[in-house]
């Protein structure tokens, strides 16, 4: 759908974060005379009024009645379309669309690679851009990773290729935009964002809309994921990674079919799952018609992303690792695997979005760290599941009121022998922090390090 199709319609914006502001400016660039209504918080309204736009009305209550007054509502990704007021308005004819759909409507002919997955999508998208640029291809690194697509609606020097990270909040917008991506990548599917999607089944369905509805020319899928390996995609060529016939790992060694490529143990990609993401990236590059094998060694110069198994330094015999991006128990288990055999004090818990922790608790019978500290809204629920396991498996278990107290308890558990304090909460940061970045920054501060030095993502934008 092109932005011009909004002309003459009753249009509202819902949300005034970075995505909402990008949507406003994109619409204004195409339709400067269009009357718009913005639904946002009182705090955000002051910023919006600073635009001095006489054709922008601002309201605070996005009720079903008010939303129903519009033909189109351009909503920010974090606002669920399954909220009662949205469902009521949709039943009365209001159509909800995201900025991702508007961008794809304007860029339907571009070469796009869309990357999604429950975990690893940011690293994969960033690594893809890194290797493509190393091969001399002008590439955009955009999307959910930190640059809303509508902020790059009309670049002065368009890229050859777009590497686009999409969250489950955005995957359906690709098909809604009327575009067919050249390549779509799905890394894995685990339960997450159940508060937004409403159920695990709907989360999976929404996540897979990038494949089932957008119908990419090529789908790059993880052969080891049970959900993805069972997919039938008659409208797409499927290229598998993690499969013996394609790009895969044998131990730490990277292979392309029966051809040995290189040892990955020394790459700045912590954890086997991240080296598996390298297999996904090389499969994409090959699917684009580019020789991938010569680009693989350039992974050695990749700069790991902040808040993703990020070592931020050591003090008094204790190393601090920031994995604040971890918002599922599966991600926490992967983080523990990276530090297996070391003395670890693990910090878990945060916003409770209804994800099940029973599997994590069972895994701790065999794979527990030295100590686990629970915190946050779902901390008590996690603590209750772990208490009987801790007694049997012999790890220390404590509960903290907040991150600062959790850090103190973790350091006390490690004692003079030291070890690793690992922040891999397995839950979102909402409530206590604005986002996972703010949580990671506070973790760095509490550990005694400069948060500004650990926050930047390299390579965003077009280069």
Reported for the largest beta sheet, the result is:
7 strands, mixed
Strand percentage? 15-25%
What is the name of the CATH architecture of the largest domain? 3-Layer(aba) Sandwich
What would the CATH topology of the largest domain be? UDP-N-acetylmuramoyl-L-alanine:D-glutamate ligase
Strand ordering within the main sheet: 11-10-9-6-8-7-21
What is the 3D form? globular
> Which bin fits the share of residues in helices?
25-40%
Task: Walk me through this protein's architecture.
The chain has 463 residues and is of the alpha/beta class. The protein has three domains: 95 residues, 3-Layer(aba) Sandwich (Rossmann fold), CATH 3.40.50; 204 residues, Mur-like, catalytic domain (UDP-N-acetylmuramoyl-L-alanine:D-glutamate ligase, 3-Layer(aba) Sandwich); 145 residues, Protein-Tyrosine Phosphatase, Chain A. It has 16 helices and 21 strands. The strands form four sheets. It has a seven-stranded mixed β-sheet, with helices on both faces. A six-stranded mixed β-sheet has the order 15-16-20-17-18-19, with helices on both faces. Strands 3-2-1-4-5 form a five-stranded parallel β-sheet, with helices on both faces. Helix 13 links the parallel strand 17 and strand 18. The chain is globular. The mean pLDDT is 95.
């Amino acid at each position: 759908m092109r932005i011009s199709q909004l002309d003459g319609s009753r249009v509202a914006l819902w949300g005034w974060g970075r995505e909402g502001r990008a949507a406003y400016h994109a619409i204004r660039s195409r339709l400067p005379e269009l009357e718009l209504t913005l639904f946002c918080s009182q705090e955000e309204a002051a910023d919006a009024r600073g635009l001095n736009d006489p054709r922008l009305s601002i309201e605070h209550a996005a009720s079903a009645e008010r939303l129903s007054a519009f033909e189109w509502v351009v909503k920010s990704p974090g606002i669920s379309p399954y909220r009662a007021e949205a469902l009521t308005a949709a039943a009365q004819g209001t159509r909800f669309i995201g900025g991702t759909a508007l961008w794809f409507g304007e860029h339907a002919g571009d070469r796009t690679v869309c990357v999604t997955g429950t975990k690893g999508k940011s690293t994969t998208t960033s690594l893809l851009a890194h290797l493509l640029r190393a091969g001399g291809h002008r590439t955009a690194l955009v999307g959910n990773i930190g640059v809303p697509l509508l902020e790059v609606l009309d670049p002065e020097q368009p890229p050859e290729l777009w590497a686009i990270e999409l969250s489950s909040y955005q995957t359906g917008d690709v098909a809604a935009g009327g575009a067919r991506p050249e390549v779509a990548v799905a890394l894995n599917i685990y339960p997450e964002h159940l508060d937004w999607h409403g159920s695990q089944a709907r989360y999976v369905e929404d996540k897979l809309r990038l494949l089932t509805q957008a119908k990419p020319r090529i789908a790059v899928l993880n052969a080891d994921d049970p959900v993805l390996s069972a997919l039938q995609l008659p409208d797409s060529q499927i290229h598998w990674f993690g499969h013996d016939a394609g790009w895969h790992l044998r131990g730490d060694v990277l292979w392309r079919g029966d051809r040995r490529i290189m040892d990955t143990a020394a790459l700045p990609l912590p954890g086997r799952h991240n080296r598996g993401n390298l297999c996904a990236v090389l499969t994409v590059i090959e699917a684009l018609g580019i020789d991938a094998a010569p680009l693989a060694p350039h992974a050695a110069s990749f700069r790991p992303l902040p808040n993703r198994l990020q070592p931020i330094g050591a003090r008094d015999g204790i190393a601090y690792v920031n994995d604040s991006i971890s918002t599922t128990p599966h991600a926490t288990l992967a983080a523990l695997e990276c530090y297996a055999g070391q003395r670890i004090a693990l910090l878990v818990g945060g916003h409770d979005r209804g994800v099940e922790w029973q599997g994590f608790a069972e895994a701790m019978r065999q794979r527990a760290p030295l100590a686990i500290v629970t915190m946050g809204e779902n901390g008590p629920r996690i603590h209750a599941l772990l208490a009987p396991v801790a007694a049997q498996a012999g790890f220390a278990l404590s509960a903290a009121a907040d991150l600062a107290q959790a850090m103190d308890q973790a350091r006390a558990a490690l004692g003079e022998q030291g070890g690793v304090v690992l922040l891999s909460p397995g839950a979102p940061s909402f409530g206590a922090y604005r986002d996972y970045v703010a949580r990671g920054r506070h973790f760095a501060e509490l550990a005694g390090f400069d948060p500004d030095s650990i926050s930047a993502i390299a390579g965003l934008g077009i280069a």
